[in-house]
Write a structure and sequence with these properties.
CATH topology of the largest domain: Aminoglycoside 3'-phosphotransferase, Chain: A, domain 2
Organism: Tengunoibacter tsumagoiensis
CATH class of the largest domain: Alpha Beta
Largest sheet: 5 strands, antiparallel
Number of strands: 10
Number of helices: 11
Pfam families: APH
Low-confidence stretches: none
CATH superfamily of the largest domain: Aminoglycoside phosphotransferase (APH), C-terminal lobe
Helix content: 40-55%
Radius of gyration: 20 Å
Strand content: 5-15%
Protein name: Aminoglycoside phosphotransferase domain-containing protein
Number of domains: 2
CATH architecture of the largest domain: Alpha-Beta Complex
Shape: globular
Length: 335
Amino acid sequence: MNTSSLERLCRQCGLGSLLSEPTVVTGGELHCVWHLRTEQGEFAAKELNTAILRQPGLADDYRRAEQVAEAMAAHGIPAVATHSYQGELLQTIDEKTFLLSTWIPGELLPPGPVEPARARLIGSILAQMHALPLPYTELDTLSWPHFSEEVWDMLTFQGSDLGLSWANPVRALLPQLLTWDKLSQEAAERLNQRLVVSHRHLDPSNVIWCDASTPKIVDWESAGPINPTMELSGVALSWSGYTVGQPQEEVFSAVLEGYLRAGGQIHDNGLDALHGLLGSGLGWLLFHMRRSLGESIENEDEQQQGEAAAKQTLILLRSLAEHAEIWAQWVEHWR
């Protein structure tokens, strides 16, 4: 990227001149983050994926989600909110769109199981978030789309024609995919009876640790209404190592222990929560499949990222489906 765009961004937002060359600090699946050292301090500039932003209404969804971060921070949640300049959260320079926030020095933990003490702290913060009476009528409600056999057929045939690595494995799992979709739809009817406003992507990649007891929560673009037990179960899985292998029950339980100690309550059925996560995973699988087929991408690298992410998501879905009843029992133990 031409750094002149970042220089203009700094001037537009009153940050003064850059004091050093901007550096890319992370390149996620969808967006990248720049570290800016300016005359007014250090900032993180998240460059939003242009192709993703073309989706109708997404820019407004981002604005509303960032307002959730502001509300959370105002209530004492360690949320890193986006700075607003002249009343606007999204900053557009040279057809690129950025979110600016204060730079937080610290570390991101790897995706494996964390220490139980940190897991308990994350559970405690999640309970505090769920306790806040934030309105969600204008927020993007978590969708539960029905994934029809025709859609899977079409995409797997297209993927096979292009020689994409996920095409045959997904097609071989078609009966299971339809079963998982049915389970998630049935669970959604019950889970949607109880919703809270929350982060909706509280995994280790979105928490910066200033030290072992001081986390800062970033990346609020997905914030919105979600069933609290479903989110709690997903958070417990991600912090206990689910994304890299079998989750550790001790760490999983530490998240739930911290949640309950902080006043959280587990009202909903654990298996419903796990089946809800199956539905969310199916949505991500389709999203990554479509990206690897050329949708919502800017270049070939993003297309390859979509292919790799689809393969990984399929692995996680199979693991979730296989162990759902066991992991649901871990939730029920604390209910």
